[in-house]
Every structure is written in C-alpha cells, then in structure tokens.
C-alpha cells in the first residue's frame, strides 16, 4: 500500500476479460498480484534505474521509452527478446513504466503468440489516470500517433503513487492535463484540485490518490459502456484532435499539449454557439490558471501537416469533442478543413493576446 493512502480497487468489466485496477497499490507488494513464476518484466529504463531495488526478481527487458521509440522497431526488438527468453503461452508479461511503456509492452504482449497474459505497474500520473487503463495499446507509425494498435485489457493495473515523487515535473504536469480533461467531460469537482498551489501536489500522495480515483471512476464508466470507441468513448479524446498536432509540432508532453487542445476546443464550442461566452471564459480561465501550460513556439505549417496526418484515421470528417458546459461534453462529426480554420482563428487570437503562452515560428 502507498504511504498515507488506502487502496481503492475497481473492476473494469470488458468483453474479453475483467481488468482489476488497484489505485494506491505498491510495486513493493507485486508478489501478491502476479500469477506465478513464469513471468517476464518489460520496464522503462529510468524507472528501473530508480527502483531496481524493489523490482521482483524475474527476467527483464529494458526499454528507453519515448514517443520516438514507440515504434514497430521497438516491438520487433521485444519480439526478438521474447524468442531469446523462450517466452511461451504461459508466460505472464508485467510492464513497469509510464504511458508510452505501457502502450508498447501491452501491444507486444497482445500480439505475440496471439496474445499473452499481461499487467501494468503505472509509474507516471498520465499512465495512472489514463494510459494504463482501458485496454488501448499501440505504437506510432510514419509520424502518426497510435495508428497501429489493439483493444485488449490488462489483467491488472497497479497505480503506485509513491513512484510519482521522482517523476520529472513536466511529466507530472502532463498527467494533470488529463485530469483537467476528466473535469471538463464529467466531473467538475475535480477542477477544485487546480489552483495556485497545484504545482506543489507531486508530494501530496493523498491528494493524488483522490484525483486518480475520481479520474478512473469516469474512465471506467465510459470504457464499460463503449470499450471499442464507437461512440461514448470518443469523449475521452476531448482536446486531443488539436492536442496531438501541437504535441508532435512543439515536442511537448502529451497532457500539456492536450491542455492547449482543450483551449482550442472550448473556443470552437463557443464559436459554434454550443457554449455560452461566459462559460467558455470560465473554462479557459481554469486551464490558464491550472499551472499545466508552458510557453510554446508553434510552426503553423507543421501544425497543419500533423493535423492532416492524424486525419488519415477518419477521412474528411472527424468526431470532434466540444463542451456545452463545464462537465458536459458531446461529440459532433465535423469537416476537418472547416475545423482547422476555426483552430487557426483560435491560434491567431492566442498569439495576439500577448499572454506570452504561444508564439509562432516563422520559416
Ligand atoms: N486515452 C483515451 C482512451 O483510453 O480512450
């Protein structure tokens, strides 16, 4: 158990299997969760360097996980290691790391020998509130994020908050960006966590426990109703349509980029008349005052390129998530070119507002 918290357990009920989510569990207690001794660990290099003393004693594959290594060549490397380590259908894969590591390891485990049993120890806030839960695993391809992947639930996920104390500050803020998202799409009370002192929260295991539990309550409800993202689950992509383009262009952590994407989506919600100007102003103020954003310099041509690349998944139209109110989100199928024009209007407004948050790179 993490210091100063109780364990809260959820069972996420999915089509192929239930996924057990242990919030406040500890890597130190991993032996109580793993199913036997035929086990292989896939771990993030930094996490292993920091915590090898509490790793269980099993064969290990170390991965330097980043958006750049979230690729098919890393998957091939893992498959080769599986062959060398004589992985068989009874081998259980335990992945220990952040969102990218979980995505990579979950995909390798889900595809090798048509699927091995696997579980995660989530070591970043982003992985604990989002990436490790819900069964989306995959890699980037040809510059397009997450375009190769599967839906396949891990048998269990341990969210160990003690490990967050060594997390890079920007990575912690990135996780908070996904927490903001849950506030906007379904739990406005979570937004009370954000304020002048939000940046000090990294040491506050009790508070982190609360926001992870609240975030995962929403995620569980959504995924159980629409595991394969044919409708409701799209709400979890609030801020992501433009967030992904900003992430790839500015090379900033995912949750910070999607916070900018949420600002753009709020602007568009108001421009299209779905959200009142007053509510949009309040929502904008909440994000700008959250401490999550950092100043970025964006290249408009690259934004267009990455947005167009991302669009390849859905053709001319995309399901865009907007807000009616803080806590009330919905999706509308919109023409991508029209959306990008609205996004450019938002970008120009931000740039000319002299807030210093966004500047444009000129070529
Ligand atoms: N990260 C969004 C989802 O799990 O659907």
Q: What does the largest sheet look like?
A: 7 strands, mixed
End-to-end Cα distance: 52 Å
Secondary structure class reads alpha/beta
Tell me how many strands there are. Answer: 13
Counting DSSP H or I runs of 4 or more residues, the number of helices is 11
Mean pLDDT: 94
Radius of gyration: 20 Å
Question: Can you tag this structure with a few keywords?
Answer:
single chain; 363 residues; alpha/beta; two-stranded antiparallel sheet; binds glycine
Describe the protein.
The chain is an alpha/beta fold. The protein has helices at 45-51, 72-84, 99-111, 125-131, 169-185, 205-225, 240-250, 254-271, 277-288, 300-311, 336-352; strands spanning 8-13, 18-23, 39-44, 60-63, 92-97, 117-122, 136-141, 144-151, 156-159, 296-298, 317-325, 328-335, 358-360. Strands 1-2-9-6-5-3-4 form a 7-stranded mixed beta sheet. It has a two-stranded antiparallel ribbon with strand order 7-8. Helix 4 runs parallel beside helix 6. The radius of gyration is 20 Å and the shape is globular. The model has no long low-confidence stretch (mean pLDDT 94). Glycine is lined by residues 130, 134, 136, 233, 236. Glycine binds next to loops.
